[in-house]
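Hello again,

I reread your note about wanting to compare the complex against the isolated chains. To keep things tidy I'm splitting this into two emails, and this first one only covers the full assembly. Below are the input lines as submitted, including protein chains and any nucleic acid or small-molecule components. They are followed by the predicted structure of everything together. The single-chain runs will come separately.
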Amino acid sequence: MIDVVPQARIDVRGVSKRYPRPGRSGESFTVLANISLTAAKGEFISLIGTSGCGKTTLLRMMSGLVSCDQGSIRLSGQLVRGVPPSIGFVFQESALLPWRTVRDNLAFALKGKHLARGEVERRIEDALALTGLQEFARYYPHMLSGGMQQRVGLARALVGDPDVLFMDEPLSALDALTRRRLQEDIAAIVGRIRATTVLVTHDVDEAIFFSDRIFVMGAAPGSIREVIDVPLPRPRRHVDLLNHAEVAQLRDRVLGTILGLV
Amino acid sequence: MSTTREEQSIQDTQVQGVAEGVGQSPRRSLPAAMRRLVRSKGVLPVVSVIVFLGLWQYFGSQVNPILLATPSAVASAFVEITRDGTLWPAFLRAMEVLGLGFGLSAVAGIAVGVLMGRSEAAHRVLNPYVSFFQSTPLIALTPLVVIWFGIDFQSEVAITFLLAVWSIIINTQEGIRNTPSSLLDMARIYRASGPSVIWNIALPYALPYIFAGLRIGLAKGLIGVIIGEMDISLQGLGGLIQNYGDAFQTAQLLAAIICSSLVGVIGTLILEVLRRRIAPWAERASVREQE
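Full-complex prediction:
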């Protein structure tokens, strides 16, 4: 049913994950059942669904933080066993080191690569410029607003020039206005560097705003209910999507699938 | 011209404001100045201490000086034993024992705490002993320590170490174990090595806990210093306390006790200065301290 694309950036096949139920019954609870998906280089996909559908677990499995019970995941053709090299991850709660400046937080992400000093400096400068953070290089996280901190998280995810960018509800902790602003900035940045991106979100509009394809997931057991294409050009701006007929249709379709009405 | 009541009260306030600023009308400004003084933060503690000293002085002078020496007697005893060269060497010795004993316990305590915090295996192996010693009244080990280390300085350092180290281990371990999983996940994503995680993430995160443990360890260690000196070598401040106590020289005794408190205060101040320099991002009040 799914074409195996040999050059797929992301290739998830038949992946399942079970957790033991609490208590001694030995029963297990299936979080994900037989998930398969692919994403091409430069594609932006979203995983969306209600709580408990396993979207975050799937993201963590794709990034190597969690292992699969069954099936396989490949990034750029390499089997994922543990955290693969060269990925970026933007966390919901920024996960910045409070005792390091913005600049040093970015440097931390480059430690594992053993680059020359000059190269490290250059990459940090590039990432700061890309995310509009040059002025804030010497600031500490607590001096920055939530939106700025997420921006730093994104800069850190990009500083290592990742093969795949993972984002786990990066904007849900922010207020609506900041979220909209950041959505446009992130879309522009991701568009510029053509990063292959996987976004987990519970916000339908956000999924439509960012993605080339949306994977709508359902719970019990966690599975992909539908894959919806968003054939609009990227990067998008909110003003372009306002009152857009096709967007309204997509919205109904995604929401309908989530709610099980379609 | 007539003014409304409101305008009159505004004028009064303005006059009073000017008076306070310029000091032209002492009768008006005195109550205001006193009100400000009363409201300022330092007043109540100072007043409380003054009242306490006053009561102590009064009741102390009614009572047998062996039972309770008055503050004035203690103050002059303090001066006397400083002048005759008794107090200063004793104070220094206590500081030395504390410095060495506590210093060693800090190094060992933090190291073991980190190990037990990071390694589940280490935790399981070592925890029974840590729990045991944490609950034991360690002063009871004094005779054993004397048998091992002799009747002198080394024994007191050992006792100080033994009293202080467990709180440091436990609090350090707690801090390390509480490192947020989001930071640890982030470290895995960006492929930080094990030592890098300890040095850059777990240890900085645990610093408020570590300092809480150090504060407790310092207090317990000081107990070890004094009791060690009282029971083992009869030197230093503990020695003075024991000797003045035996001789019923209560004023000198209280002076020596106050001096030993000073050792604790100085130690705590040093820790606080260190904390501000090393972990400025940590707020003192937010850490739950474990005794």
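For quick reference: Chain B touches chain A at residues 180, 182-183, 185-186, 188-193, 196, 200-201, 204, 279, 281 (CB under 8 Å).

B.
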